[in-house]
């Protein structure tokens, strides 16, 4: 559930004015908040077309954008401990909105490998959560004796099988919706965690606020915060690719930013939100960060009872 908080990355003329009231929302199956998670994660920033991001973000909010783009991307995590037990998560981040004095992110889609995590995200945090399968595989040459590898690949069970920079480690994310199965993307982790003596980066503490809600489960808008302690280092952006599509005339097509349909699906069968989510994943990468020794505390969401955009470009706090 971690979403990025980007402070003043873009300029924005219209500021959001928000009054936050109400009792924290509680999740019976997940236990009492705050909810705590431990694991590792990869966070990648992308340039996302503002037009694509706005299709996810409610009209009540102001998208932070410049030159037709906003800052989105994805957060790929593997939790070894959580209220739902171990599970994998992919958060597709559409973009950011301004929330003085910081900014808040908006999730386009949240894919998790746990039914409990999916239900909790939908019914208690207001997230667009879906159950998914995370298939992890390696194409590798035989491992040389004495070679050791760690980092993010060890966390997902792939690190010990790699032996050279030519090896290819991938995670395929497949959304499960009843009998319907849709491949979302392949994430190539070749550039992450191939050195056994690498510096894991400094220890940091941060707070990442995010907006959610406006769904059939939670019609109200919410704001929640994730407080993180971890080691963080920059890594090369990983490659995200789509999967071949068999078109109606039998011609193989390949994913791109403009042509991003999952395999074994036709345009008539896909929901537009899924297509746009894949488009976010396939947008232009900028930076990537590896989070290790991750400890995350998620606070209970707070209801936003009023959201107002000032058309004159100034703002005032309601109370």
From TrEMBL:
Membrane-spanning ranges: none
Organism domain of life: Eukaryota
InterPro entries: ADC_dom_sf, NDX1-like
Name this protein carries in UniProt: Protein NEOXANTHIN-DEFICIENT 1
